[in-house]
Amino acid sequence: MVTNFVPLRCRSNFSFLHGVSRIDQLLDRAARTGIGALGLAELGGMYGTIQFYQKALEYSIKPLIGMEIETEAGKILFFSINFDGYGNLCRLSTIDKLYDRTPSLEELSSYSKNLVAVAFETNRIEVLKDIFGDNLYFGLVNNGDISSRI
Questions:
Q1: Fewest CB atoms less than 10 Å from the CB: which of 26, 89, 108, 136?
Q2: What secondary structure does DSSP assign to 34-64, as a single string?
Q3: What residues contact 65, with CB distance under 8 A and at least 6 apart?
Q4: What pTM was computed for the model?
Q5: What are the pLDDT digits (tens) for 10-46?
């Protein structure tokens, strides 16, 4: 039985100090629980992407290729829509890691094509809406504080 639930914010052991599961462990668990799609969103990098994509196809799980980085507009989770989007993810990762700085709003605008963005902070909503249009979503995070629950 395939479930409609799709985990989007999975981390693997490639996200140093943030994920401990190996990619094959994540996919094996997803397959055993009937998850038909899985989002791998490493922190700031694309290190396990190729392995994740190839293994996910072996498990008949739709791989959602993503990355989470801090930007001028706050923390954003990105997913590629297609191969061009994957290239834009790589460009944003390069800015984050190689140049050791957060991508600017101008760079987000330049590399936003074929990306879906999930923002977790509400600063610069209008700017993000202008950049990503209908491909902008807002994520909710349960921080464990009962007074903040919806």
A1: 136
A2: TB-EEEEEEES--TTHHHHHHHHHHTT-EEE
A3: 40, 46, 49, 52, 53, 79, 80, 86, 89
A4: 0.85
A5: 776 566 555 567 888 889 998 999 999 988 888 878 8
